[in-house]
Amino acid sequence: MSKPQIVNESLEKWLKIFSTLLISLVAFETVAVATAMPFVVEILHGENFYALASGVALAAQMLTTVLAGPWCDTRGPKPSLYTGTLLFIAGLLVATAAPSVQILIVGRAIQGLGGGLMVVPLYVLVSAHVAPARQPAFFALFSAAWVLPSMVGPVIAGYLVDYVHWRWVFGMTPLLLAFVLPFSVMKIQRFPNPPLQPAPKRAGKIAIFAIGTASMVGLLQVLSGTEAGEFDWQIFAAILLATVATFVLVRPLLPPGSLRAANPLGATVLMRGMLNGTFLTVEIFLPLMLKNIHGWGPTQAGIVLTAGSFSWALGSWIQGRIFSQTYRALLPFWGTVGFLLGILIASVGILPQVPGWMAIFGWLIAGLGIGTIYPALTVHALEITPPGAKGATSSAVQVADTMGAALCIAYGGIIFAVAGGGGPTAFFAVIGLMAAILILALFVSNRVGVMEGYRNE
Questions:
Q1: What is the maximal distance between C-alpha atoms in the chain?
Q2: How does DSSP classify residue 297?
Q3: How is 133-150 classified by DSSP, letter by letter?
Q4: pTM reported for the whole predicted model
Q5: End-to-end Cα separation, the chain, in angstroms
Q6: Chain centroid to CA 47: how far?
Q7: CA 280 to CA 308: how far, in whole Å?
Q8: What are phi and psi of 104, to 5 degrees?
């Protein structure tokens, strides 16, 4: 790895502000859309496309996240950053003007493609131009950049849908970026290009597998938009084939043995995907449940997302102050237990005779549970990765996160549609599926351990 080409203090400070702003806007858009989507698809008369509209951005992002790393290495971070930002803005503008749910989905897909190309180059810019001793502060700030948007985003989105117009949920971010981008491009051009690397020998192969995996996940999400009465053996056969193809194609993108939790690194990466997927799936269906079952409006329904974000941040803070190896070794199991307990409590709120606030109480517990384990898994994965392979592990963790979320949302949408959609039974079916995945995660947690090194099987 080449030494950083250190920039002056003023430029470094600007990079910190710009990166934090960009990640904050991505975070805001993510949580704001999750709040508004149940109401947007109803307005556009596309309720059966709810899971697809919510998850298609993740399927698209998974593709470009894999491709962004090699592109940054061989061409520098600037082309990826510029392209990603423009695609992100274009996708949001398409969604803003969408006359139908189908066009909204197209916009969300374009937005996801851009999102996958935006974050990776920011990490590359930091690693290439900031002194190693100051890099941890950057990455800590990147994580913190999600906290405030996650807490205020649902409230703002709910207010916009209730009192202004849902299109502003998508249109606000492009407007803000339009003000900062011209000045930002001039600043970015002042950063020297890092030493470029030749294209890795496996780059073409990895690209093929990434495209194939994203395509299969995208197909599953499209199938989740099938009307309840239209499921037949051909649809179920397509779901089965797409599932098998997804897990075959993703294997080269993950550490060996990941899908079987065959070693500590593989188990850690797999668990990240399972936790992220179940959390985001339940999170996008809870506002829809509060709307359909309890008649809550956008502002009220958004409170559940704010509650989960707050307790996640609290759980993350707590785990960061657990230094005993003995106690940290307990985090994967007990954090998952807390998460599972939380979603089971939240599921009681599905009953019409139970106040909807029960869902918020349960989601507070769920957020606390996942908050104590999720960031700890990242640290653990990098700790047990040998020097020279940490970039590959970072990429694998991102792929697992995105794929886990996109897959679980797709399966949630399919189960929701098969169960009739809209009523308590459908919501119980979705949360039941996510609880089953978390029970499997408890077994995987027993294989998340500490090892001296890592070797391919």
A1: 63
A2: -
A3: GGHHHHHHHHHHTTHHHH
A4: 0.84
A5: 26
A6: 22
A7: 11
A8: -60, -40
What are the angstrom distances between the C-alpha of 284 and each of 37, 38, 366? 8, 9, 14
pLDDT digits (tens), the chain, 457 positions? 455 566 667 788 888 888 888 888 888 898 899 899 999 999 999 988 998 999 899 888 888 887 887 788 778 888 999 999 999 999 999 999 999 999 999 999 999 999 888 888 887 787 777 777 777 677 667 777 887 888 888 889 999 999 999 999 999 999 988 888 888 888 888 887 766 666 666 667 777 888 898 889 889 988 988 887 788 899 999 999 999 999 999 998 888 999 999 898 999 999 999 999 999 999 999 999 999 999 999 888 888 988 988 898 888 888 878 777 777 788 889 999 999 999 999 999 999 999 999 999 999 999 999 988 887 887 778 777 776 566 667 778 878 888 999 899 999 999 998 987 778 999 999 999 999 999 999 999 988 864 333 333 3
Whether 274 contacts 437, CB under 8 Å: yes
Are 363 and 154 a contacting pair, CB within 8 Å? no
Residue with tokens 């509209």: 53
d(CA 68, CA 75): 10
Q: Angle at CA 88, nearest 5°, toward 48 and 290?
A: 35
Residue ranges of the alpha helices (H) in 356-423?
A: 357-383, 390-418
SS3 state at 448: coil
Q: Which amino acid is at 343?
A: I
- Nearest alpha carbon to residue 289 among 184, 362, 235: 362
**Dihedral sign from CA coordinates of 128, 131, 137, 141:** negative
Residue 38 CB partners (closer than 8 Å, separation 6+): 50, 287, 288, 291, 292, 301
Q: Which helix (H) or strand (E) holds 70?
A: helix 50-75
